[in-house]
Amino acid sequence: MTDNLRVKSSKFIDETYKISFKFNSKTYYGYKGDTLASALLANNIHLVGRSFKYHRPRGIMTAGSEEPNAIVQLHKDTSRTEPNVRATEIEIYEGLEASSQNCWPSVNFDLGGINNFLSPVLPAGFYYKTFMWPASFWEKYEYFIRKSAGLGKSPSEPDPDIYEHKYIHCDVLIIGAGISGIIAAKTSAKNGFKTLLVDEKPYLGGSTIYQNSEHFKINNQISSSWLEKEINEIKKIDNLEIKIRTSVAAFHGYNFLLARESLTDHLPLHQRDEKVRHRLLKIRAKKVISATGSLERPLIFDNNDRPGILLSSAIEKYSNFFGVACGQKNVLFTNNDSAYETAMSLFQKGINIKAIIDNREEVDSKLVKEIEKNNIKVYKGYTVVDTFGYKKINKISIMQLSKDGQKVIGSKISIDCDCLGMSGGWTPAVHLFTQSGGKLRFRDDDQVFIPGIYPSDQISIGSCNGDFTLDEILIGISKKLKDFLDIKKTDYENLEIQSHFNKTKRNIWLLPSNKIIGKTKPFVDYQNDATAKDIKLALREGFRSIEHVKRYTTTGMGTDQGKLGNMHALGIISETAGSKMGELGTTTFRPPYTPLTFGTIVGRNVGEYFDVFRKTPIHDWHVENKAKFENVGQWKRAWFYPRKNEGMHEAVQRESKAARDSAGILDASTLGKIDIQGTDASEFLNRVYTNAWSKLAIGKCRYGLMLNEDGMVYDDGVTTRLDENHYIMTTTTGGAATVLGKLEDYLQTEWPELDVYLTSVTDHYATISVCGPNSKKIISKVIPDIDLSDEKFPHMSFKNTKIGKVKCRVMRISFTGEQSYEINVQANYGRSVWERCMQAGKEFNITPYGTETMHLLRAEKGFIIVGQDTDATMTPIDLQMDWIVSKKKYDFIGKRSLYRSDTIREDRKQLIGLVTENPKEVLEEGAQIVEDASKSPVEMLGHVTSSYYSPNLEKSIALGVVKGGKNMMGQKLIIPMENKQINVTVTDPVFLDKENKRLNA
Amino acid sequence: MFLIHCPYCGEREQSEFKAGGEAHIVRPKQPTELSDDQWAEYLFMRKNIKGVQFERWVHTHGCRKWFNMVRDTSNDEIKAIYKMGEKPPTKYK
């Protein structure tokens, strides 16, 4: 074990609890409290992965969720393996196995690294420019591009872990448990607000909790000691809930937030069984306090991406929190005072600092003076111009900056080092604020975007609000909280604060170099390998909008969403294009703030719960009798009932034949049923259907067609008059909910004066349809008391009756063209009545049939299916159903649209029948119909909507829509298929029993 | 996801509701007397404003009642909610 970089024990690391883990198949050790990144650094490993485009070696850059480089593949097994896990966030556990991504054969020797040398020919927009020409070659290029694209591997087996969703309602949500968040949480909770405090890290206290500097004191205590006491206090407050390892992913309008609580990812594998892995919290907060902190900015110079180059604040955290030195020859490069804090804390631990390179020419703060007093060399007014070392930095060269900061002057100085810390100032983490709809304001003096206009009841406090120093944070916080929470007093009115931090900063977005920019690689977006050069190229090529530059260069489009480099991209654009940053605006920060697993998003809605389905009361019988099912809307409907060796075709042919020869039985329970009552029920039906309803006698049924206001067919079904003011309407299976919604809409908004009540009763009844020449005999056995004679019970009529003691409604209606009875019975009796019908029909070979046979039978009869033969562009006239459109009625929904200039055109697509020249040839549904295939371009006249082989007619039949089809009876048309042409003849859509003899047989 | 104060049920989540387009478009009482253009105006033409808009909403997964809403479409702020048949608040016109 080469634990030689563990410098000093830290109270956040339990050195008595040793943990072994594997990285790239090699075993290492770390301690409880380590992240994978800190444990790797302690083992002197910086090289973790390869970059996306150039495959450059990359190391750990940060110590938090903003990490662009150190992303790894976690777990080996095919169901749990997870790509793009940030090594800086994953807490190590016994058995952890991680490996580098985006490299082959290994991170140390990666063949893709050749792209680095090809980089002069791989500029921004390379893919767009190269692979779009010739267009026909895209398919060939794509294979190779897809192969080389992508970071990591996704799992190939179902996720075995458990996830869940939870709703939380609170008065005050505080995001971030740094010093500001802790103060806010205590103030809120102590004033009686139900408070929730969340933080993405596994500990409370943010970056203050590991500050040991004498320069920052609160009430004469070192800031971390003061904060520790506060944390101990808030843990005792009842109405404060604290959730660590909880990352807010999205901040929507109306203070609705989504957060991911990670529950087991830090546990040893054997302790995770049966536990929920991630919980998606759906939080409704009356008030939100964002205390999300800020992210340190890197600096943009040539080769600023080598392993061993980190953010200065990360180096500080690794040393203070994890007790790990990132290097033994450290150099810090800065444009502000923050790096000096890092330097002091390293110095106090005895970690060597070779030099500090400071952009600023004059720096005289107390911190700087103290550093100089300790004989650490500070180069003022200098910049790094290059770095060296392929897999780990080993040297930098620096040069002096010109007065205006635009050029470098003098001669190069080389400095050996094994670690370089960058500090480019701070960027407030305003991502969540902007997601919520907040408008940012640009603060010119230190070049940061801070919250401007709040869209909901929320505030930002601390460094996410641009208050970076301890005194800035604490001085105003009391008043802010009092105003926001409308309270009189806080515990933080008179804090005594010592904060020695000079705010001067010399901001240069792209640092000058002694080389021309074309020869340099100053990375702006590390993960996507976008350099300042690429951004300048995009501007030269005419891109101006930040959103366009982003997409063209891919800046900010990685898994880290450019948390580090977006500000620099903006800065470079603004400098190059000469526009003001405040006016450029930022790219849109979209949820999630950090990536979510799919498991978190779907929660428990997996497998059979992914999409709920509805079963009819007779469903189990269908299952027991080996039915195949099809999905119709949310329903599972019996599709066909194959016997022994039958396929679908054989089963459907047999079922169809049986239904016409003797008897068939269908479960029609899924049809929508709406109970309509009220003194104006008849008038209401007059207005919603195209035909007339006033004269329908009690006990009679009528088929109706419902249109949209635009005249297009919307739904159809049979409605029965049960009583003077009582109807039962049936709708299509899929249309039930929308039809009810539409009817309610008209009743409530257009015709509130009508006395009509609608109730959905679809689920209340089981509907069993028995059809065929022997149906009458079967029904008379099931319901002996009923007079089934054609005189007493003709087609399109209804009777209330009983089967035993069970009340039922029987309708003589038909969707097959056969004599047919539909029994509606209270749902829970559905199966027993079905079985009675089966028993009674046994001697007649009663055959259960499914939806496929139902479709075939109705097509023989030329009955349409709304949604199959119609597509919201068909009027009743187009369907050749003029007979159902009342000429006498003054108005009904859609009437006026039936004689708009467009709907009266003669050449609209109209429903027709099609028969093939070869009666055995069955057309494909959706096939195009043409008149003359030799013409170019070929005019498409229409398409086939329904097609079957009819066993009863012993020929192929089809329905289709054809332009002007109504006047084309007998005409020959062509269906061009891939290898052949099929000759068809246009016919009437009714193929069987035009005289309706079978209905009344 | 915003919260909507249903005038019949009280405050509920947006997912319980459905939007029904622009409000105060009255179905003509005598459609047959309208020209194609006049009918098309009723049938197809909608304002789709960025800013304050009068809309119809229905509490689909609740009382199933329709009502009107004045909403700023640019930030989803709900300015007013009133029942069907009630007069729209004049100050947003």
What does this protein structure show overall?
- The complex is a heterodimer of chains A (1001) and B (93).
- Chain A is an alpha+beta fold.
- Helix content of chain A is 21%, strand content 29%.
- Chain A has 23 helices and 50 strands.
- In chain A, 49% of the residues are buried.
- Chain B has 93 residues and is mainly beta.
- Chain B has one domain (3-27, 34-92): Folate-binding superfamily (Folate-binding fold, 2-Layer Sandwich), CATH 3.30.2270.10.
- Chain B has one helix at residues 36-44, and strands at 3-6, 10-13, 18-22, 52-58, 66-72, 77-83.
- Classes of the chains: A alpha+beta (1001), B mainly beta (93).
- The interface between A and B is medium-sized, with 23 and 26 residues.
Short key terms for the protein model shown above:
heterodimer; A: 1001 residues; alpha+beta; FAD/NAD(P)-binding domain; seven-stranded mixed sheet; six-stranded mixed sheet; 29% strand; elongated; B: 93 residues; mainly beta; Folate-binding fold; four-stranded antiparallel sheet; 6 strands
* CATH class membership of chain B: Alpha Beta
Report strand order across the widest sheet of chain B: 3-4-5-6
Q: What low-confidence regions of chain B span 5 or more consecutive residues with pLDDT below 50?
A: none
Percent helix of chain B: under 10%
Our measurement of the CA-to-CA distance between the termini of chain A, rounded to an integer number of angstroms, reads 93 Å
Computed Rg of chain A? 38 Å
Summary of the model, kept short:
With 1001 residues, chain A is of the alpha+beta class. Chain A has 23 helices and 50 strands. Chain B has one domain (3-27, 34-92): 2-Layer Sandwich (Folate-binding fold), CATH 3.30.2270.10.
Helices and strands in order:
The complex is a heterodimer of chains A (1001) and B (93).
Chain A (H helix, E strand, L loop, with lengths): L13 E10 L2 E7 L3 H7 L4 E4 L6 E3 L11 E4 L7 E5 L10 E4 L13 H5 L7 H5 L7 H11 L13 E14 L3 H12 L4 E4 L17 E3 L2 E2 H12 L5 E4 L2 E7 L3 E7 L13 E15 L3 E3 L12 E3 H9 L9 E5 L3 H11 L4 E6 L7 H8 L3 E4 L1 E7 L6 E7 L6 E9 L2 E5 L2 E3 L2 H5 L3 E5 L4 E6 L4 E3 L9 H16 L11 E3 L23 E3 L4 E2 H9 L5 H8 L12 H12 L3 H4 L13 H5 L16 H6 L3 E5 L2 E6 L7 H14 L2 E4 L4 E6 L3 H8 L12 E7 L5 E11 L2 E6 L4 H15 L6 E4 L4 E7 L3 H8 L14 E7 L2 E7 L7 E7 L3 H12 L5 E2 L2 H10 L48 E8 L11 E3 L9 E11 L4 E9 L8 E5 L4 E7 L14
Parallel strand pairs in A: 1-7, 8-9, 8-15, 9-12, 15-28, 17-24, 18-19, 18-24, 19-20, 34-44
Antiparallel strand pairs in A: 1-2, 3-4, 5-6, 5-7, 10-11, 10-29, 13-14, 14-15, 16-25, 21-22, 22-23, 26-27, 30-31, 32-33, 34-40, 35-38, 35-39, 36-37, 37-38, 40-43, 41-42, 42-43, 45-48, 45-50, 46-47, 47-48, 49-50
Helix pairs in contact in A: 5-6, 5-11, 7-8, 8-9, 12-14, 18-23, 21-22
Chain B lengths: L2 E4 L3 E4 L4 E5 L13 H9 L7 E7 L7 E7 L4 E7 L10
